[in-house]
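Running this now, will post back.
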Amino acid sequence: MTSPAATAPAGQDLSAYPLIAREALFGNPTRASAQISPDGAYLTWLAPKDGVLNIWLAPADDPDQARAITGSTDRPIRQYFWAPDGKSVLYVQDKGGDENFLLYGVNVETGAETTLTPFEDTRVQIIGASTTIKDAILVSLNNRDPRFHDVYRLDLSSGELTKLIENEGYAGFMADDNLDVRVALRPNQTGGMDVFKVEDNVIAAEPFSSTDMEDSLTTSPAGFTTDGKTMYWYDSRGRNTAALVAMDVATGETRVIAEDERADIGGSIRDQDTGEIEAYSVNYLKTEWTATDPDIKAALDFLDANLEGQYGIQSRTDDDRKWIVGNDPVVEPSAAYLYDRDAGTLARLYVGRPELEDAPLQPMHTLELTSRDGLTLPSYLTLPPGSDSDADGVPDSPVPMVLLVHGGPWARDGYGYNATHQWLANRGYAVMSVNFRGSTGFGKNFINAGNLEWSKKMHDDLIDAVEWAVNEGIAPRDQVAIMGGSYGGYATLVGLTFTPETFACGVDIVGPSNLETLLSTIPPYWAPLISQFHDRMGNPNTEEGLALIKEASPLYKADRITKPLLIGQGANDPRVNQAESDQIVAAMEERGIPVTYVVYPDEGHGFAKPANNIAFNAVTENFLASCLGGRAEPIGDTLGASTAEIVTGAEFVDGLEAQPGG
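Update: finished.
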């Protein structure tokens, strides 16, 4: 940690709370994403090798003997898993943020690495693995037609790919434990999905089940039992929130295993041998687990009694006797544990960011706000250290606030340690995250309330949250910023154009400025889902729909921007092309409106490289300090260590002109 480099906002005394270094929050973790091999012999995790996250392997009985088994020197490896046979570790990686993820395998015994999907401009998806067929998995690839993913069986020993199904318009597939494709999903004319049976890799002519648009984001198949006789669903048909449902494949009869009127059933624990449900989770304000199996209940009760905060099972051995458990105490750095169910022991493997162990991390408060038309908005608030002496979730006096808007928009904010919340709170700001209408997890009615409401009621929810914060004494009316990535970046642009008096400034990260051009440049593999975008955003192929999305596009209202704006963009972003940021920057410059614009030539939809993330956050906190009065760590040499290109507006951020390219 470092000492303060800027004064605290007016009325706050943060002198007792040192600045948490950006490196500690956004640099590489010491370790992350621990897993255990299927036989329990090895542990793996992600950790830096020469400054880049790679996969490390260690004997389970001697973790200190860990060694790196991958050698990425550029982009961090962020997602990996054990092959079912335990002979190799598999991971996916793209190039420069283009999201064309390929699949790689590393042989545990020999260390040999193989590119298992050796194609250009191709994105792999994992369809299924088996508890009984250990040497193969099912994948899908769009190397034949970038719009559609064909289904392949991948032999993990030889690397041979065998095409099973050539896809001519299906959005996804699901297999059983025999690695037989059993289900295909295809968009229908109502905006939902038709679900087809597949037998011997032949897709049935007619669907056996369907959803319409209102259930399309809350209803989907969720796997089979090992014997293939029961098919699970997350299903909102005939109800609001998604229930966990079991369907008898032979008869079509269904039974509800679990449902919750507050939120969708979000996840499950299944028997490693039978595939039957043993527990399920609901995430309303926090994640809550309910066990249906007595042995699993005993295990979850043990974890509840021995861990503070929330936890999740990251990995399990084939015999299910040893688990890797991730623990999130919120006000302490997250940690990973090895849980031996037979011995009844919980051994801490590591703390992910030990440099935060003495840092002044702040609690996250859960909120249920109410929109102007009566919707409940599950939300989260983090306050600056020392600002809330009675710990009631309201500061002793109002403090500047950052409204942090999630992406998607078909996603959600959740409870737990949040690096951005902790960083901004440490700088002297209240940080609020709001699950506005359109967010997922709270039932179909909440999602569908956001249909065709981009820049309208979806934005009203954010404004209502700001009004609540002002009225409750959380923040002064003239000291609220808006910030976010992807849809959150769009919401930032909407905030500064549609409601220019509400926010003191904005930070837009890879946010679209023109919904028409956004929809015309989506990745080709999203083609099967384009009709749903049209249903929820507006159809540019109709006169009415085109007018709707133009009306909701901040680009056409750029002349209304009166407050400072910072924009960050990845040059290789396949979802929100760089043109989305370029065009609103050009529109502002044409009108003489100040804007600061930073581009990363080796990033995509967000910033994966820690050096780039740290550099943009260095710019961001100094930008926020200039408009909200918070404190900031100096930019220092962070931009020089990154690939940041300052396109315009260096003069509007303290310390940025002195940077390379500034």
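Residues 176 and 502 are 52 Å apart (CA to CA). More later if anyone needs it.
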